[in-house]
Design goal:
single chain, 109 residues, alpha+beta, Alpha-Beta Plaits, four-stranded antiparallel sheet, 4 helices, 4 strands, 27% strand
């Protein structure tokens, strides 16, 4: 499994809008086409954390591959009023992806 983590800014008043947009998006076939097996959204003191888990080890590449898809472009556009870049100087959504520096996975209990 592979995961990506996107970090941005989100006002608490906009959480319900972002939640609704992702619920609508995730009800389509788009997550399946991207290889997404789980999405988790977190909010912490004005920060937004978006964890997306993929079945294969190429999640970031899968996101890049669908950037031109109308459904992906639509949700990206629809989220813009609610989610701000962590750093306004960032030019690409890829700039918002955190870099993993440690990972551990245990076996079944």
């Amino acid at each position: 499994m592979d995961s990506t983590l996107i970090v941005a800014r989100l006002s608490p008043r906009d959480i319900c809008h972002v939640e609704a947009l992702f619920a609508e998006f995730d009800a389509t076939d788009m997550p399946h086409r991207m290889g997404t097996v789980r999405r988790q959204l977190f909010h912490f003191h004005g920060l937004y954390f978006h964890i997306q888990d993929f079945a294969a080890p190429n999640g970031g590449e899968r996101i890049e591959a669908v950037k031109e898809d109308p459904a992906f472009a639509k949700i990206s556009q629809d989220l813009r009023p609610f989610i701000d870049p962590y750093d306004p100087g960032w030019k690409s959504p890829k700039d918002a992806m955190a870099t993993r520096f440690y990972s551990w996975q245990g076996g079944p209990l």
